[in-house]
Amino acid sequence: MANVALVEKVPSKTDFIRHFDNDFQFDRFSLCSDKTKKKILKRDVDIDIDIDDYEFIILVGSEALQHFTKERSITEHCGRLIEDKYIPVINPGMLAFKPEARETWDDALSKLKKYISGELKSVKIDESKFYGITDTAEALAWVKAARASNSPKVAVDTETTGLYPRDGYILGISMAVEDETAVYISTDCIDEEIVDEMQSMFREKGVIMHNAKFDLAMLEYHFNFEFPNIDDTMLMSYMLNEVPGNHGLKQLAIKHTPYGDYEKPMYDFIDDYCRRNGFLKGDFTWDMIPFDLIQVYAAMDACVTYRIYQVFEAELNKDPQIRRVYKNLLIPAMNFLKDVQDTGVPFDRKRLEISQNLMEQDIQLAIEKLEKHQEVRNFQEFQGKDFNPNSTLQLRKLLFDFIGLKPTGKKTGTGAHSTDAEVLQELGEQHEVPTLILDIRQKSKIKNTYLDKIIPQLDRDSHLRTNFNLHGTTSGRLSSSGKLNMQQIPRDNPIVKGCIKAKEGHQIVAMDLTTAEVYVAAVLAKDKKLQDVFRQGGNFHSTIAKTVFHLPCEVEEVAEYYSVKRQAAKAVTFGIMYGAGPHKISQQVTKDSGTYFSLNEAQEVIDDYFGEFSKLKYWLENMKNEIQQKGYIYSIFGRKRRLPNVFSSDKGVASHEVRSGINFLVQSTASDINLLGAIDMNRHIKEHNLKSRIFALVHDSILAEVPEHEVDYYCEKLKYFVQKPREGCVIEGAPVGCDFDVGEDYSFGKYDKTYGQMGA
Description:
Elements: E1 4-8, H1 16-19, E2 27-30, E3 56-60, H2 62-68, H3 74-77, E4 86-89, H4 102-117, E5 130-133, H5 136-148, E6 153-160, E7 170-176, E8 182-186, H6 192-204, E9 206-209, H7 212-223, E10 230-232, H8 233-240, H9 249-256, H10 264-277, H11 291-316, H12 320-343, E11 345-346, H13 349-371, H14 374-383, H15 392-402, H16 421-427, H17 432-457, E12 463-464, E13 467-469, E14 479-481, E15 506-514, H18 516-525, H19 528-536, H20 540-549, H21 558-561, H22 563-575, H23 582-593, H24 599-612, H25 614-630, E16 632-634, E17 640-642, H26 651-687, E18 693-698, E19 701-707, H27 711-723, E20 737-743, H28 750-755
Parallel strand pairs: 1-2, 1-3, 3-4, 5-8, 6-9, 9-10
Antiparallel strand pairs: 6-7, 7-8, 11-12, 13-14, 15-19, 15-20, 16-17, 18-19
Helix pairs in contact: 5-6, 7-12, 8-11, 8-12, 9-11, 12-26, 13-17, 16-17, 18-25, 18-26, 19-20, 20-22, 22-23, 23-24, 24-25, 25-26, 26-27
């Protein structure tokens, strides 16, 4: 048996022998002998170990990993052999309160044992099997042979100089038709005959990609390829584990293939190149990597994708529900979002430039108003320079020392008094200065984060092309990233939305689902009384209040005569899926109504609510019990939400996990209804050669730029597709509500109302 050492951060009581099933012996060390240390600095390290005495060294946690290797992510490298000696693992002591880490630990433990026993060895890359092609005749011969092979699949990957089709070009195309060899063909040697041969292969074989939305967009834009049968290993991974951040090709290669971090030499080259040439990594492009270096690792991308597909395909076949979601929702959604990204968000460049100046003026006016306060002037005189509202140190001194405000009690991670937006809003009740500072911060963020950054990223057509992601949330809702996060556009100030403007002869059309999550809950719970509320139409929250409290008035009069009760019913309606109790309801109603609403009143409202909608309460309890028993739940469309933390010994963690599961049931279903409607609408647009273009999905909204003569037809058809009965998720006689806003810009008149002729 091999000589093994184990290194942890500080001496602990963790029984590693038990966790390792007593399968091997090891010597135990700690980086720092002082067990009171929470964070280990270099000066704290006092380990006395001769690494040459050991064949393997188990590194427990990120501190040990960073000390002995250049790597930082313990979760990414858990169970992987580094430098033929080090095996990082997470601390098994956390499993009691973090059951979700069990799978990671079990996988790492299995590999660790195999490395130590000699059953598993580090795989050396055979460069004769992973190589590049720069000769046209050789490239054609390889593609022809691959097309003629018996393999029903071909894995495809690209290396590019940019992240968007219009921002760069393709350097080369990697392909593999088996799991042990692959090639990387330079685009410099690809002629029309090769393109034709590739296209035939892509039509005849199923194509596997990792993050297909990216590679498809590149290959379609630069080569006009068509791909009728696509699989995406990133989306497969997401279906098998919906936690965001775990679906990169590198991470999956480490976990599911013997090649580990095979790209490390290439990234070492990039680090060295940037250091030697004074380059920022953000300015580095892949055409700077020599072909001789990139060819092996680029080819391996295709091989690794092929291998991962084999693993995931087998896993998906074990669960028909998630396989159905992958095939019938995620793959169509991926193709749809590729179209959305290609369309881009329509901005008005002139209005953006005007808005920059307007926001700068607003900021200066706010600063001038701030400096009229004597306390601010005294503070600036004291420190001998202008006050910086973004400096938390300066802000604390000003608010708590010079003005003398009473801290809210909220602290930062370091124990200092917080000055975040929530705190400033609360402090604003004591003095005007915190409110002014919050205003300056918000306006500065709008200008710096949005207006200033959008303009240089616009394409020639004044559209901004950014990313919409299917794998960025556990709930299944879309996320956005890249040049602009569309999910985080400011709501309170219309200045950014107002710059999203339709071209002449067109309108911006936004479709929003209304009370969709409550609608879904009413369907899933089979609560006929709650379903009747939707059938009645009219003002939803007023109808709820009248129903729950048996109010002696017409629905139209509820808001006027029983406004607090209406707010209370609204708070419970939106809070029940999120586990809101009397305390939360009391706070929310007090805030919304401006009238104090006691805990007893809140409890009475909850009791009355569930007394009226008893089926809803019964369903919530059933779902809670099912989640607690199984540790997972399926949505009506077949999405799976794994909830291992329900088994945590920490009751707070366990109860939060249950609430997350119930939230998932309604959130994911509402989101999927919207997404499926948008997919169908996009397909309809293509089939009927319409000029309308969907350019974004933001929360529960579908945004499109629509020719004026198509607006009525577009709205009619989109409503039809969104309200289309799916998986029985419909209330007979009352389809899910769809609200439409139509206008020249995405603010729908609020920009003009706020900025008038100044923003014209």
